[in-house]
Design brief:
Elements (H helix, E strand, L loop, with lengths): L4 E11 L2 E14 L2 E9 L6 E10 L2 E11 L4 E9 L13 E8 L4 E5 L10 E2 L10 H40 L4 H6 L6 H56 L1 H4 L3 H12 L4 E2 L8 E6 L3 H5 L10 H10 L2 E5 L5 E8 L2 H9 L4 E4 L10 E7 L2
Parallel strand pairs: 5-9
Antiparallel strand pairs: 1-2, 1-8, 2-3, 3-6, 4-5, 4-7, 7-8, 10-11, 11-12, 12-13, 13-15, 14-15
Length: 374
């Protein structure tokens, strides 16, 4: 039976994108064009419902094919799913394209298994394949400038190595004519006054070309620097606009203390907990990702594109969210303290730094660059 397959795969819980605990298993059986899945989970905590996706590795992404959902009872799940193995979940993908399963809890916990023996990078999980990115006008202009700059650099380097040969060749052709080039290479050079004048003209032409080339390079470098400075300034202005908008509309959008506390408790139980600080200045801390910022605080959605924030996230694979004694929410970016980094962090809206512990003599302080959200 060509389409027959039967096996068991173990399911693991993933915390912050990292494989952690064995949480159950799935039995897979494919027979006569039908795929049957039995999914068993245990110790699911506060989760009450999960969605199950088949994983397809395509274009560098983990594409999720929705297969079904199940209700959790008594912190456990025993779910059975049956689908057409030639069109898994009604999609265009057959079973042999499925690399594993991704299980998403309604309260934020995630589970996964891969039976193709390849690692899973859950940050690549999507339910729709992203479209190709479209360059902005500024980025297109910068790309063209870089291409022109590279071409001029190559031409100048080539010209620098060939100038001597070109000059000699031009002298020979001008003085003796093309037909005597070979002969001239074997006879010592006896330049006449007319040849010297022509040589001086040729040297002037080459010097002029070099001068113009260097001028163009300098102009392009200036334009490139201006483009980079403009993009950086636009990002800073965007952050300032976001903060100004928050201040202007704070009274209109602010929740009551009871609503804010209820919302915080919901968030607190939806993400992994952490306790990085020795004091209680910032407490009840959780780990989040840039994509979570919009769901947590829609007024701060622009922060998810902050270059400094993304740099810290991709270095340490998490952000910090906590709150203070006066119920203010604080967002933190992991990093190492130094003066230059402090200057950059302040420019991008994260002026405060809180170390996780007191550094020893000569030791760099690890901690979080912080700003208040609300």
């Amino acid at each position: 039976m060509a389409d027959y397959s039967r096996f068991i795969a173990y399911i693991y819980e993933y915390v912050n994108g990292t494989k952690q605990y064995n949480s159950g298993f799935t039995k897979v059986e494919v027979r006569n064009g039908i795929c049957k899945l039995q999914i068993v989970l245990k110790n699911t905590g506060r989760e009450n419902k999960v969605k199950v996706y088949g994983l397809v590795r395509t274009q560098g992404w983990l594409l999720g094919i929705f297969l079904g959902e199940g209700q959790i009872q008594r912190q456990g799940l025993d779910l059975r799913i049956m689908t057409d193995s030639r069109k898994m979940g009604g999609s265009d993908y057959e079973f042999r394209k499925i690399a594993g399963l991704f299980i998403q809890g309604a309260e934020g916990r995630t589970y996964a298994t891969a039976w193709d023996e390849e690692p899973l990078f859950l940050e690549k999980f999507v339910t729709e394949l992203p479209q190709e990115p479209v360059l902005t006008a500024a980025e297109t202009e910068q790309e063209k400038e870089e291409e022109i700059f590279s071409e001029i650099t190559w031409q100048e380097e080539k010209k620098g190595s060939d100038d001597t040969d070109i000059l000699e060749e031009k002298k020979t052709i001008i003085e003796e004519g093309p037909e005597t080039v070979t002969q001239k290479a074997e006879i010592p050079d006896k330049s006449e006054p007319k040849g010297k004048e022509q040589e001086e003209k040729e040297e002037q032409v080459l010097e002029t070309e070099k001068s113009e080339s260097q001028k163009i390079r300098k102009e392009l470098q200036v334009r490139q620097n201006e483009t980079e400075n403009r993009k950086e300034q636009e990002e800073i202005e965007s952050e300032q606009e976001s903060r100004q908008g928050q201040e202007n509309h704070q009274a209109k959008t602010e929740h009551s203390p009871e609503e804010k506390e209820e919302r915080w408790q919901t968030i607190l139980h939806s993400y992994p907990r952490m306790d990085p600080f020795e004091d209680e200045e910032i407490f009840e801390c959780i780990q989040i990702a840039p994509k979570d910022i919009m769901m947590i605080d829609q007024k701060q959605w622009r922060l998810g594109r902050n270059s400094f924030l993304l740099h810290g996230y991709y270095n340490y694979r998490h952000l910090l969210l906590g709150r203070t004694e006066d119920q203010r929410w604080v967002l933190g970016i992991p990093g190492i303290y130094d003066r230059q980094e402090h200057f950059v962090a302040s420019r991008f809206g994260f002026p405060g730094f809180k170390p996780t512990k007191s550094p020893k003599d000569g030791e760099q302080a690890f901690g979080y660059w912080c700003r208040v959200l609300q």
